[in-house]
Every structure is written in structure tokens, then in C-alpha cells.
């Protein structure tokens, strides 16, 4: 197999893996999560909410961490490998762009825990983010070694402006996915995570 074919195959597989991750999480939300997710507001707006509601399954058959924590990690893993793909799996070129997302996500979790931002703090989400980042960098490193070992530095170059544009588009898309999957009300109802407002209400009883 030539080096060029290896590169094309590696990128194709990476995009397919990322799409499968996003699709699997999306279907999990549709089948098992309540319609309190922000994405369901969009589904209502475009008129397909009733169809999706008919597909709902009993969420009790799925472990809580699978419903509420695993998707966060899977989203982040998909983001990491897509950014790696854009930058030709060169960690030294893409690590900063990859770490932007988990830095924001983990900071957001801690600010929720401190009551600075609205939402529920869940340490399992933080754990999922960390594992996702490690898995993402491991994947990128493995692809670099397997598919790009015979590709020279010059051959791996692409117009930097195009890379930056694709990076920004990918970042924006995953931010929208993160916003659409926000479900503070559902998490509180399921007793998943810790809500500052919830703790405060409990202390008012004393």
C-alpha cells in the first residue's frame, strides 16, 4: 500500500469514526433522554419532534453514566480526532486547538459546581473529558505513526488559512452540539450531578 493511499484511508476512517461517534450519541439522546434537551426545541421548530417522541425508549434500561457522562466524552473524542485529521495528525501543530475544547468544558463544570454558572456539576463529566482527551491524542499519535511514517514534512503541508478555517468550523459545530445536548433540568430530575441551586434550596430548610 502506497503512502498516499494510507493517508487517504486514515483520513477517511477518522471522519467515519467521528461521524459514528456523533450519530451514536445523537441517537442515544433521541431514544433515551427527555425532551428537556435544547436540541429538542430545534426539532420542535422544524416539525419533527412528534416523530422523534414516538421513538422514545425506557431510559431505565441504560446505566446513568452511559446516558449522562459517556456522550460528553465521546463528543470530545470525535472533536479531537477531527482536529487531528485537519492538521494531518501532527500533534505539535494541533494540540492547542484540541485542548481549547476540554479546557472550556472542564472550566464550565467547575464554575457550575461553584454556582458561578447555571447548571449541574458532575465529576464524572470531568473524568469523561480527561479520558476523551487522552484517547484522542493516543488515536492521533497512532495514526501519525501508522499512516504518515513515510510522508515527508513538506508533503503534509496544506495552506494554513484553510486549516484554520476548517478548525474554526469544526469548533463551532461541536460547540453547537454541546449547547444542544445541555440538559440541566433532566440531570436534576435524574439526580445526576450537583446543582448549586439545588444545594442552596436544601439548606434553606434548616
Strand count, sense and barrel status of the largest sheet are: 2 strands, antiparallel
Oligomer: single chain
Average pLDDT score: 83
Q: Roughly what fraction of the amino acids lie in strands?
A: under 5%
Give the CA-CA distance, first to last residue. 71 Å
Provide a count of the helices.
Answer: 10
Helix content: over 70%
Backbone CA Rg: 19 Å
Give me the strand/helix succession.
Answer: HHHHHHEHHHEH
Number of strands: 2
Which stretches are poorly predicted, pLDDT < 50 over at least 5 residues? 196-206
Structural shape = globular
Task: Provide the structure class.
Answer: mainly alpha
Strand order of the largest sheet: 1-2
SSE blueprint and pairings:
Layout: H1 3-32, H2 38-45, H3 49-53, H4 64-68, H5 70-86, H6 91-113, E1 120-121, H7 123-147, H8 160-180, H9 184-189, E2 194-195, H10 196-203
Question: Can you put this structure into words, describing what you see?
Answer:
The longest helix is centred in the first third of the chain and has 30 residues, at 3-32. The chain is globular and about 50 Å long. A two-stranded antiparallel sheet has the order 1-2. The chain has 10 helices and 2 strands. The protein has helices at 3-32, 38-45, 49-53, 64-68, 70-86, 91-113, 123-147, 160-180, 184-189, 196-203; strands at 120-121, 194-195.
Amino acid at each position: 500500500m502506497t503512502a498516499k493511499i494510507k493517508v487517504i484511508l486514515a483520513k477517511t476512517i477518522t471522519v467515519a469514526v467521528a461521524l459514528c461517534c456523533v450519530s451514536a450519541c445523537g441517537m442515544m439522546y433521541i431514544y433515551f433522554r427527555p425532551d428537556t434537551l435544547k436540541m429538542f426545541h430545534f426539532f420542535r421548530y422544524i416539525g419533527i419532534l412528534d416523530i422523534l417522541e414516538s421513538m422514545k425508549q425506557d431510559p431505565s434500561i441504560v446505566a446513568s453514566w452511559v446516558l449522562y457522562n459517556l456522550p460528553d466524552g465521546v463528543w470530545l473524542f470525535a472533536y479531537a480526532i477531527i482536529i487531528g485529521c485537519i492538521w494531518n495528525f501532527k500533534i505539535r501543530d494541533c494540540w492547542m486547538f484540541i485542548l481549547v475544547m476540554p479546557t472550556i468544558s472542564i472550566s464550565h463544570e467547575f464554575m457550575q459546581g461553584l454556582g458561578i454558572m447555571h447548571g449541574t456539576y458532575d465529576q464524572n463529566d470531568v473524568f469523561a473529558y480527561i479520558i476523551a482527551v487522552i484517547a484522542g491524542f493516543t488515536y492521533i499519535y497512532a495514526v501519525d505513526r501508522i499512516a504518515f511514517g513515510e510522508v515527508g514534512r513538506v508533503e503534509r503541508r496544506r495552506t494554513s488559512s484553510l486549516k484554520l478555517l476548517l478548525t474554526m468550523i469544526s469548533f463551532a459545530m461541536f460547540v453547537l452540539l454541546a449547547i444542544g445536548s445541555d440538559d440541566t433540568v433532566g440531570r436534576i430530575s435524574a439526580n445526576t450531578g450537583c446543582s448549586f441551586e439545588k444545594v442552596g434550596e436544601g439548606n434553606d430548610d434548616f
